[in-house]
Amino acid sequence: MNTIPYVWYNRQEHSAYSNWLDDPTFGIAGGSFLLIVNHELKGAVTVSGLAQEDDHAIVVEALRNVKVKFNL
């Protein structure tokens, strides 16, 4: 899964990202997911160290395992 086009779209279309577009100290990459429950931010899961696609895949697999284990 390539997240770059989606991230670019969000950075262009949503004001939450517009402040960061020109910030050289900030970058968005695959490998991190916000944990939102009932419209509340509860935390985040982040994996870093591999290619961003691999980081992303590890988080997706981990969240799938949690979903199965806890019947969510």
Automatic annotation (TrEMBL):
<dbReference type="InterPro" id="IPR005624">
    <property type="entry name" value="PduO/GlcC-like"/>
</dbReference>
<dbReference type="Pfam" id="PF03928">
    <property type="entry name" value="HbpS-like"/>
</dbReference>
<dbReference type="InterPro" id="IPR038084">
    <property type="entry name" value="PduO/GlcC-like_sf"/>
</dbReference>
<protein>
    <submittedName>
        <fullName>Uncharacterized protein</fullName>
    </submittedName>
</protein>
